[in-house]
Amino acid sequence: MRIRAGDDTDLDTILALGDEAVAWMVSQGNTQQWGTQPWSQNAARITRVRDILAEGELWVAELDGEPVGVLVTAGKPDPHVPLVDEPEIYVRLLLTSRRHAGKKIGSQLLDKAVSLARERGISLVRVDCYAGGTGELVRYYERNGFVKTDTFTVNEWPGQVLSQRT
After folding, report:
1. Is the pLDDT of residue 117 over 90?
2. Does pTM top 0.85 for this prediction?
3. Are 70 and 59 in contact (CB under 8 A)?
């Protein structure tokens, strides 16, 4: 797998991965995390992705030239997440292709975030995720070396912040 720097021209890739993720989640009965509408057909979601890209760095994971995952890192979280008193790498977006599940694409992208932090002399990496449903997403990040810190709620959407020291 290769991880390359991305840019605004990768927007369609991100939206396609989001569409794939939403379809998979809906098939699993998870309609609360990201709803039921494909990202590419959701004007608010498209705007949100554009805003995240404008504030962060995009990394695209490829297998044999095919985009199979994306990571967006930034120096700060979304406004609903408590700030910290130190520099950080914040994972603003992590998406992987369900067609390639089991290939540790997400884990390798999270490793990229940790590597970026180390290269920049930053000792904190944080991420937030959906804390509802079965809690599997929170456990996924814990399996990847993150520990739970803060919780938050946006409207009725439960969120969990996790952190990892480098």
Report:
1. yes
2. yes
3. yes
